[in-house]
Structures are given as structure tokens and as C-alpha cells.
Amino acid sequence: MCALNYADRSSLSASMPLISQEFHLSPSSVGWLLSASLWIYILLNFPSAVLAEKYGNRIMGSLSVAFWSLAMVAGALGGSYGNLLVSRVLLGVGEAPTFPIGASVINRLSSSGERPVLFTVFMASMQVGLALGTAVAGALTYVYGWRLATVILALPGFVWALVWWVRYRDHRVAVHVGTADEAAPPRPSVLQLLAILRKRSFAGIVISGASGNYMNFLMVSWLPIYMNHKFGLNMAVAGFDASLTYLAAAAISVILSVAITYLSRGYGSTTASNRVVTSVLFVISAFLVMIIPQANSAMAVVVGVGLALGFVRAGSGANQALLNDLLVPSRYIGSAFGLALTFTNSVGMVAPIVTGYIVERTGTFYAAFCVASGLLLVGAVSSFFYTRTPIEILESGGTT
Fold first, then answer.
1. Cβ-count burial of 183 within 10 angstroms (0-12 exposed, 13-18 middle, 19+ buried)?
2. What are the residue ranges spanned by the domains of the chain?
């Protein structure tokens, strides 16, 4: 589901040179279009997470993927910039439950020691989706045009929605109480869930996640365009090079996470380990981002961005595991994750827009990379100093 999410989202970036030419778009207009899927998406992360926990991941998963796939088809069949813009907004509506559903499933299937790797694998699927979406959309756009490429990329979503509905079954977590006659505590209200906004650790995790998301959405939206702009590559080649970058980032992040988890066994709590890992990996990525504009070949950019994204993804996986560790009770991780995404994706949403204006005013991408690097350093500091206390959710009965 996560891979399809990012494949469908990234197809627009790979097709943007033709779309921009067809609709006569300025760089700032391109930035707005690239970010359109995030406008309503960020507002629905938390509500969709609450709905998924209430009605189950089965129905929410199938409905959301089918809906966003239909939105893609509508955008391809429309004949105006406004129609394409609306279709991208609707795509964001469908994509909103993806990460809360993933966080809920991971929490129920894993132990604390396993979660950093599983969250990293989950996050790495973003890069796999980016690679597939960028490569397929770039190649098909080059041969057949962007509309057919968009329709073809939408088809797997309908298949996934059907298979998920047929095969998946929700697993309810048993809540152990004092006697057999006692009922499980009622779900916390929305206000009780929102109360974690006042928790210092939650704020620290959100700031770290936001800095990582800014970097991620910058590369998701602009990397193929950057390759085309700097090296004069056509869409197919730029899309292929970008796909190599995303695949490298996925492999690097998983290898890093597995290695760090193995080496950190027996050295203190997983909470402390996740905190340090997030901070260190973000600092390394910030340094890599600063030197990417100095690369003089497309392959050097592929290596540099792949490493930078790989470190960010592994750090983000540790950051999400840290939220799971600190949340009490952890079974509400879907709602907590959805609430965090509301803020982290708000920051990610502005990355394509800010980059568009920077490129329009300066004619280069250097300042855009500097902004991303600085934010990663802020995220590293936030993770290290502001994630040290539990994040408690009061249930309606008054217990934690």
C-alpha cells in the first residue's frame, strides 16, 4: 500500500516536463501542482487514523486505495490544469490512511526490539514506490504521453484494493482486565487523543519527523526535474536515474537499520537507542545534502541523494519506533501516528512550493538544498533533547 502510494504520487514529477509544456506552467505553478496531493492529505491523517481504528484496517485500506486510483484516472482524462489540480487533491484524500494503518499493523505484529527495522522497511517501501513510479511514468511518458502513463499506474491500485478486501482480516487486540465480567476500557475521546499535543516528547518527535519529511518531499517532487535541469537528461533517462536513487535509498536504509539494531542489542533501552540513532543519522544526512549541488555528474547525484535519503529513512524509522516506545498505551499508535503526520506533512507540503520559488528567483537548486540541510540539523537536536518522557493517553475511564 505504501509503495503504491508513492508510485502514484511520484508519477506526476516524472511526467512534469510534458505537463508543464502542455499547460504553460511557471516553476512556481509546478511547485503548487506537485504539492496539491498534500493539501487535504495533512488534514485527514488524524481523522482517517481514528476511523481506521474504529472500523478496521480492512475496509479503510480497500476504500482508500480504490479512491485514490480513481482520482488518478480522472486527472488523466481531464483536459485542463484545474482538473489535474483537483484530481491531485483527491488523490491525497485517498492516501491519508496509509501510514496510520501501517503503524497499527506493525505495532500489533512486533516487539519493541523489532520495530525500528520494521518501521524502516515500511518507510523504505516509499522509496521502492518512488523508483517504480518514476521509472514507469518516465518511460511511458516519453513514448506515449503523460495521460496513458497515469492511467497505467492507477490500475494496480484497483487490484490491490480487491485483494486486500478478500484476504485481509482485522485482528482485535485483547485488553486484559481484572475479572471476566469486566469490560475493556472505552476508547479515548478525540479530545483525549489530542491532549498528547501538550507532551514535550510528542513535539520532539514531530519536529524530527517534519525535518525528515521536508527532505523526502523535496526529492520526491523535484529530483527528476533537477536531473533534467542540471544535466539536460530527457524524461526517460532522468526518471531512470531518479528510480536508481530511490532504490539505493531503500536498500541503504534497511541495511543500516538492521545493522544498528543488531549492534545496539545489550546496550541500554531501545528508547535511548532510537533517540541517538535518529539524531546521528539526521546529522550525517544534513552533511550529504550540502555537498550534493557540487556533484558534476548524474551518477554522483544518484549516489549522494541515495545516501542522504537512506540515512533519513533509517533515522525516520527509528523516530517512529521511538513514538511507539513512548506512547502509553501503545495500541493507539495509529491515531498518534496520524496526528503526528498532520504536522510533519504540513512541513513536507511546503517543500515543493518553497523549492519552486527558490528556483524561480535564483535559477539554481543550491539554496533549496541548504534549507533542507538546516532543517535536518534542527530535527537531530530535537530528537536528542526533547524525547525523554512518556506520552500518555488517558482513556475515557480515567486510566492510562
1. exposed
2. 2-168+187-392
Topology annotation, domain 2-168+187-392: Growth Hormone; Chain: A; (1.20.1250)
Residue 110, phi then psi, degrees to nearest 5 = -135, 165
CB 383 within 8 A of CB 205: yes
Q: Would you state the cell numbers that stand for residue 134, as one nine-digit string?
A: 518514476
Would the CA dihedral through 258, 262, 265, 268 be positive or negative? negative
Closest alpha carbon to 289 in 213, 208, 219, 362 = 219
Residue type, 344: T
Q: Provide the whole-model pTM.
A: 0.78
Give the tens place of pLDDT for each residue, 45-77: 899 998 998 888 999 999 999 999 999 999 888
Residues 6+ apart with CB under 8 A from 13: 34, 134, 220, 221, 222, 223, 224, 225
What does the alpha-carbon distance between residue 341 and residue 360 come to, in Å, rounded to a whole number? 29
Contact 396, 186 (CB under 8 A): yes
pLDDT tens, residue by residue, 349-400: 788 889 888 988 888 888 999 999 999 999 999 999 999 999 998 876 554 4
Q: Is the peptide bond before 188 cis (omega within 30 degrees of 0)?
A: no
SS3 243: helix
Beta strands in the chain (DSSP E): 327-328, 391-392
How many secondary structure helices (H) and strands (E) does the chain include? 15, 2
- Please give the DSSP secondary-structure letter assigned to residue 179: S
Rounded to 10 degrees, the C-alpha dihedral 200/203/204/206 comes to: 160
CA distance 118 to 246: 18
∠ CA(359), CA(363), CA(368), 5° rounding?
40
Within 10 angstroms of residue 172's Cβ, the number of other Cβ atoms is 8
Task: Please give the full DSSP string across 52-82, using - where no structure is assigned.
Answer: HHHH-HHHHHHHHHHHHHHHHHHHHH--SHH
- Residue 231, pLDDT > 70, answer yes
